[in-house]
């Protein structure tokens, strides 16, 4: 330490002094003249939670708030982890379709797919396609994504692990073939929750 330049020794000392001064600012404002004690210095800034004393929060509120918060976070995390987003590629003959986007009182690609998924998992879903096709237009591989939460049909309310992509493909095709047989799922893959069939598309032909 004796061999080090004086400015390098002064820098850490000044830092400690400034930290101590910030923690004792309240006492200086009230006119306290007691000497500075380095052992009482707290370099970390006071937390916002320290503005409320423990007596301001009743034990009942604290317990119920903590438990409710933890429970809601756990439920949200479990629900999120059980919802699987699938990438679904479909092939269809557009002769009897009024386009791909859902329309009231019209037979559309999205409408038929939503009906098949509803019959498969027992609850409504939202389907987003990468491209729109007009009435009468065919598609070899129009890609869409859908979020599926697998809920037990024997025990309503019980959430089960996600379906395997091959199971989704076979089950949805089963209900599609019962419709008109002019649309089928050619591929199903699991994708990340933030994947979007429309905005993540790299090419359209």
Describe this structure as you would to a colleague:
With 205 residues, the chain is of the alpha+beta class. The protein has a domain at 80-190: Pseudouridine synthase I, catalytic domain, N-terminal subdomain (Alpha-Beta Plaits, 2-Layer Sandwich), CATH 3.30.70. 37% of the residues lie in helices and 16% in strands. The protein has helices at residues 6-23, 25-29, 59-82, 109-121, 165-179; strands at 83-92, 127-129, 139-149, 183-191. It has a 4-stranded antiparallel beta sheet. It is globular, with a radius of gyration of 31 Å. Mean pLDDT is 73; it is low at 4-33, 40-62 and 70-80.
State the CATH class of the domain at 80-190: Alpha Beta
Work out the helix count: 5
Count of strand segments: 4
- The overall pLDDT, averaged over residues, is 73
State the end-to-end distance. Answer: 72 Å
Give the overall form. Answer: globular
**Fraction of residues in β-strands:** 15-25%
By oligomeric state, this entry counts as single chain
Largest sheet: 4 strands, antiparallel
Q: What are the segments in which pLDDT stays under 50 over at least 5 consecutive residues? A: 4-33, 40-62, 70-80
N-to-C order of helices and strands: HHHEHEEHE
CATH second-level architecture of the domain at 80-190: 2-Layer Sandwich
Sheet with most strands: strand arrangement:
2-3-1-4
Q: What structural category do the secondary elements indicate?
A: alpha+beta
Q: Tell me the name of the CATH homologous superfamily of the domain at 80-190.
A: Pseudouridine synthase I, catalytic domain, N-terminal subdomain
The portion of residues assigned to helices is: 25-40%
Rounded Rg: 31 Å
Task: Briefly note the CATH topology name of the domain at 80-190.
Answer: Alpha-Beta Plaits
Enzyme class: isomerase
Family: Belongs to the tRNA pseudouridine synthase TruA family.
Domain Pseudouridine synthase I TruA alpha/beta: 89-167
InterPro entries: PsdUridine_synth_cat_dom_sf, PsdUridine_synth_TruA, PsdUridine_synth_TruA_a/b_dom, TruA/RsuA/RluB/E/F_N
């Amino acid at each position: 330490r004796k061999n080090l330049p004086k400015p390098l020794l002064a820098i850490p000392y000044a830092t400690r002094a400034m930290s101590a001064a910030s923690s004792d600012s309240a006492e200086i404002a009230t006119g306290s003249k007691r000497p500075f004690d380095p052992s009482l210095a707290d370099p970390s800034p006071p937390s916002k939670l320290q503005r409320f004393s423990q007596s301001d929060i009743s034990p009942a509120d604290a317990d119920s708030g903590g438990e409710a918060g933890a429970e809601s976070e756990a439920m949200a995390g479990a629900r999120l982890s059980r919802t699987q987003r699938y990438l679904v590629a479909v092939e269809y003959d557009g002769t009897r379709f009024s386009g791909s986007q859902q329309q009231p009182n019209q037979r559309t690609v999205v409408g038929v797919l939503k009906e098949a998924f509803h019959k498969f998992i027992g609850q409504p879903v939202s389907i987003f396609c990468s491209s729109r096709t007009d009435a009468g237009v065919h598609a070899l591989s129009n890609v869409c994504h859908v979020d599926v939460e697998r809920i037990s049909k024997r025990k309503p309310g019980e959430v089960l692990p996600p379906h395997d992509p091959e199971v989704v493909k076979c089950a949805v095709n089963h209900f599609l073939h019962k419709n008109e047989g002019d649309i089928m799922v050619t591929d199903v893959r699991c994708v990340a929750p933030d994947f979007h069939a429309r905005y993540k598309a790299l090419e359209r032909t």
